[in-house]
Amino acid sequence: MTRSTKLKPEYILQADPAKRLADTIKRLLRRNAYTSLKKIVAKTHAADLSVIFHSLTISDQHRLFDMISDLEQKGVLFSELDEDVFLSLVADMSVDTLVEILGQMPTDDVADLIGRFPQEKADDILKRMDLEESEEVEGLLRYDDETAGGIMVPDFIALKENITAAEAIRSIQEEHLEVEMPFYLYIVDDHDHLVGVSSLRQLVVVSPDAPLNTIMTTDVLSVKTDMDQEEVAKIVARYDILAVPVVDDGNHLVGIVTVDDVIDIFRKEATEDILKMAGVGEEFVETKSVLKSTRIRLPWLFASCIGGIVAFYVIGRFEGSLSRLTYLAAFIPVIMGMGGNIGTQSATIVVRGLATGRFNIRDMGTVVLKELTVGLILGTFYGLLIGSVAQLQYSTLGLTTAVGLSVVISMSVAAFVGSMAPMLFARMNIDPAVATGPFVTTSIDIVSVFFYFKIATVLLDI
Amino acid sequence: MTRSTKLKPEYILQADPAKRLADTIKRLLRRNAYTSLKKIVAKTHAADLSVIFHSLTISDQHRLFDMISDLEQKGVLFSELDEDVFLSLVADMSVDTLVEILGQMPTDDVADLIGRFPQEKADDILKRMDLEESEEVEGLLRYDDETAGGIMVPDFIALKENITAAEAIRSIQEEHLEVEMPFYLYIVDDHDHLVGVSSLRQLVVVSPDAPLNTIMTTDVLSVKTDMDQEEVAKIVARYDILAVPVVDDGNHLVGIVTVDDVIDIFRKEATEDILKMAGVGEEFVETKSVLKSTRIRLPWLFASCIGGIVAFYVIGRFEGSLSRLTYLAAFIPVIMGMGGNIGTQSATIVVRGLATGRFNIRDMGTVVLKELTVGLILGTFYGLLIGSVAQLQYSTLGLTTAVGLSVVISMSVAAFVGSMAPMLFARMNIDPAVATGPFVTTSIDIVSVFFYFKIATVLLDI
Question: How far apart, in whole angstroms, are the C-alpha atoms of residue B157 and residue B151?
Fold first, then answer.
């Protein structure tokens, strides 16, 4: 157990102003102090409101939402809420109100939210929206949610390659005031093909008469609309850029993916991986109801249940030996536990190694061999230790050897299976994160128990 | 098991140009084709080189590094490498060469790397560095690695509040060409106190004569030098900003933390959490040697070993019952397995919920109660299922009840302990991520086994 030397801030309630604010808001809600509430809400950043929102009951969420008068604030809140909370909040909201709020939001967020509504309501909303915006939203809806096209914003500065720096600055001053990320100026040819990139800083330092195609950087990185969002995120992270342009199959510039979305992707993918590794689905269940949460977790435990029943039949086969040497049963937990734990270690290392790009499936041989070696070393160490306990207790060399040897085998097999399974899963395009879940640990349990009884039966001649 | 519908790109080798490049480079290294290698290396982005680096043997890493002629490329590579790889690479590099390469790097990265060298060598390097730079580096070294001060760059644009927009643009054109992130212009008073923020875009759209303090945004978010890096990262993510200014205790602007570092923090913290949850330390062990890796993993397995030995003594206490009803042993794996798996689910949900801010330790009551409810429901379901198997096999109502009841208790206790432990750990300022490791699962094992035998002994009257 490591005692962390730094104080992790989220656990220190007094120190976090958001938590203090949450307390104030809860108190005011209890007192129905609506005037004070409205004042506080108006002064609070929507991002902070969304944090507070998560800790309220559904009815308090509705009451607090009604206190917000700023449409933009409502919009930010919409895009920050988990799907369940969002749907309960908008359930009895009129289409007009929704259109008003969505009208304030970035197009990519609108497209995400539209997808959460039932088809009919979504169509209704799109129909009542500003034509230009609804076209942009529908444009984004064509792409898969988790691709570059699905997460891009159609909101960027594109300048023609043959205008001058001075003309470019003027056009930015006049036309592009609404653009969220004005740091990269993308340069396109007459057919909207992406040909280069520049920056406002570059424009202000060059001669005002210089045409853009003489000053731009032509070595511009772009991604295709159908690239998986995780890979887009990795590219933005790898090259330390603030946005990456997205092009369609014809190399026409159609949008950009910005770094704030990249952060969200990494955080979401990490949560997904962690939940999958523990066998709790992909989505965060704790914000869901007890029944929903139960339904998501039930099937993952099924693997473990089936595995346990198989282990039961395996042990049943050795009932004869057991009835003669009952104490054999006492070692089942330690043998299963050691195998299970080292298997989880190996699987986790491989899963995270694959996710962070530290190794890829082509390294399978090396990685599995290394894990097997570690398993053998650790297995020998703990085999000797646990064997000694058996010797102390029963002074039967046969039993000592059987227990020790079983630990070695169980731990080596576990390290092997634990590292091999995620690699194989990755090869078959199954997410390797599921390999650390009940499925693999349970197979290790069965193998461990089987070998233990087999070895004991042979060595003790029973 | 979920079959992922999207093809995760990192597993598709042919499609990734970095992987293709890695193959080419490995081939050229085998053939000692140094001229071609140099050409390819010169054309490759340093970030891509660092990916390839990880997949090479140590001697190939040295040979490839020697092919790099561009100092800046060497610098980027330095900052991307894991500590072990970096130290092996620089082991026999002269101080002069090191100073030359470090001279090309951002100050925050240099400060990080300096900390990896032995004290003497670090002092040597600092002495030979350019005075201004070494002072900046030493300034950063004063702060703890994992705080805002430790990760900030002293590289930002600060403008006096009383100059005009036109003067500001001129100063940016003349003085601040080297600044990495020229998007935020921080405005300071005569004593370098942070008083506002503006942007290049704002400067080009206002009247050139407007003094900065009339156009700036005064509502500027900043963090203190000693804030934990994880909290800094959360602020940048929450407010969707590209950089956050860092101030010292006297509110003097001393640096900025940029969004690219924030991405690295999130990825690193996610990896740390995942590894801790599996009981494999905090650092990624797979890039270390077999022995180092073994040493890190050994103590984490100790908890599981001790737990297993305790379970052994617990079962030993019931040897009498076991010798009369040997088949009791056959249910040990399924009861332990079900408890262990639901315990991991609960602990994971709570750990991730705390890390992402979905709930905090004040929600302990609600969260634990909910987990307990889920545990009871799932326990009843699987208790009935596994009890039925017992009934089918042995047709002994006492045994059926004992097995079924034990599953219910084991799963409820596991959900309770699994959700309670990380909450308590967080309260005691121990990282909750360790709660999913061997420590908690092992205690659940012991409790499960004990209750099982106790119930069986009573119900079967043995």
Answer: 17
pLDDT at B14: 34
User: Is the model's pLDDT at A227 over the cut of 90?
Assistant: yes
Q: A293 and B354: CB-CB below 8 Å? A: no
How many C-alpha atoms does B134 have within 13 Å on its Cβ side? 12
* pLDDT, tens digit (0-9, with 9 covering 90-100), for B148-197: 998 898 888 899 999 999 999 888 877 766 676 677 899 999 999 999 99
Tell whether domain A290-459 is in CATH 1.10.357.20.
Answer: yes
Per-residue pLDDT averaged across A19-44, rounded? 86
Residue of A nearest to B330 (CA): A312
Residue contact B237–A260, C-beta within 8 A: yes
Buried b (16+ CB within 10 A) or exposed e, B248-272: eeebebbbbbbbbbbbbbbbbbbbb
Domain A18-146 is classified in which CATH homologous superfamily?
Answer: MgtE N-terminal domain-like (1.25.60.10)
For A102-112, how does the pLDDT look when each residue is reduced to its tens digit (9 = 90+)?
888 888 888 88
Nearest chain B Cα distance for residue A117, angstroms: 22
The architecture (CATH level 2) of B17-142 comes to: Alpha Horseshoe (1.25)
A137-152: pLDDT as tens digits: 888 888 888 899 988 9
Instruction: Name the residue facing A183 among B183, B303, B309 (closest C-beta).
Output: B183
Q: What global pTM score does this model have? A: 0.78
**Which CATH code, of 2.40.128.20, 3.40.50.300, 3.10.580.10, 3.30.420.10, is assigned to A157-261?**
3.10.580.10
Residue B297 and residue A327: Cβ atoms within 8 Å? no
CA distance A207 to chain B (A): 12
Answer yes or no: do B280 and A308 touch at CB < 8 A. Answer: no
3-state secondary structure B387-429: HHHHHHHHCCHHHHHHHHHHHHHHHHHHHHHHHHHHHHHHHCC
Enter the DSSP assignment of A164: B
Interval A45-56: pLDDT, tens: 887 888 788 778
DSSP label at residue B166: H
Query: Between chains, do B2 and A172 touch, taking CB under 8 Å as contact?
Result: no
According to DSSP, the β-strands at B185-188 and B157-160 are: parallel
Mean pLDDT confidence for B47-67: 83
Of the candidates A275, A305, A386, the beta carbon closest to that of B305 is on A386
* CA distance, residue A447 to nearest chain B CA (Å): 12
Reported confidence tier of residue B80, pLDDT bands at 50, 70, 90:
confident
**CATH 1.10.357.20-classified regions of chain B:** 290-460
Taking CB atoms and an 8 Å cutoff, what residues of chain A touch B347? Answer: 278
Residue A227 structure tokens? 């690239």
Phi/psi at A87 (5° precision): -65, -40
CATH number assigned to the domain covering B157-265: 3.10.580.10
Q: Give me the helix-helix angle, B17-30 and B46-54, nearest 10°.
A: 70
| Residues of chain A contacting residue B19, judged by C-beta atoms under 8 Å apart | 360, 362
Dist CA A340 CA B272 (whole Å): 21
Q: How far is A16 from chain B (nearest CA, A)?
A: 10
Q: From the list B10, B300, B358, which residue is nearest A54 (CB)?
A: B358
Every domain of chain A with CATH number 1.10.357.20 lies at: 290-459
User: What are the start and end residues of each CATH 1.25.60.10 domain in chain B?
Assistant: 17-142
Q: CATH classification of B290-460, choosing from 1.10.357.20, 3.40.50.1970, 3.40.228.10, 1.10.10.10?
A: 1.10.357.20
This complex has an ipTM of: 0.77
pLDDT digits (tens, 9 = 90+) for B215-230: 998 888 899 999 999 8
